Recover the amino acids of this structure.
């Protein structure tokens, strides 16, 4: 039997010195798109974010609504097994809300969050809607109003973090 020699592979000089293919250029990261029209942003004043922050700090979860009528936010316990609708209102001097908007929250045992005064010196009240309806004055076509100065002593328990804990007690357990 004849011996067969296998040929050794010959490497050409061109193959050894050939440069590696250049990596494809990476496009620079695009700048974040700026929203030109804020017509679709429902929380332009940032009130929902302010209330949501207070709820989260006090041990709740908060979800802002995507509708501009009725409920402004939904508060829930950490397990997401109980929910409370929240209506947020910004006002001066009195806690004003339209009658229909307040009554719509009764079945869900909702809470009215009132932000009173300028940003740097704002008071925050978190009132169960059922208690608000008992105390508020019916002003006919203009809706309901609870005067802050006339009810200052009663409102103390619903102000700030203490108000969140009282109004959302059933969620906090």
């Amino acid at each position: 039997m004849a011996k067969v020699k296998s040929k050794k592979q010959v490497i050409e000089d061109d193959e050894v010195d050939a440069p590696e293919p250049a990596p494809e250029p990476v496009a620079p990261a695009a700048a974040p798109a700026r929203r030109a029209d804020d017509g679709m942003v429902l929380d332009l004043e940032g009130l929902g974010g302010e209330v949501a922050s207070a709820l989260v700090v006090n041990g709740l979860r908060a979800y802002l609504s995507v509708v501009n009528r009725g409920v402004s936010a939904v508060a829930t316990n950490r397990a997401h097994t109980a929910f409370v609708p929240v209506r947020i209102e910004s006002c001066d001097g009195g806690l004003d809300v339209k009658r229909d908007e307040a009554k719509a929250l009764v079945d869900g045992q909702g809470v009215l969050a009132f932000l009173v005064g300028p940003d740097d010196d704002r008071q925050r009240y978190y009132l169960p809607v059922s208690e608000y309806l008992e105390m508020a004055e019916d002003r006919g076509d203009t809706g309901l109003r609870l005067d802050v100065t006339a009810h200052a002593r009663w409102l103390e328990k619903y102000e700030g973090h203490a108000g969140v804990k009282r109004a959302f007690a059933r969620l906090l357990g």
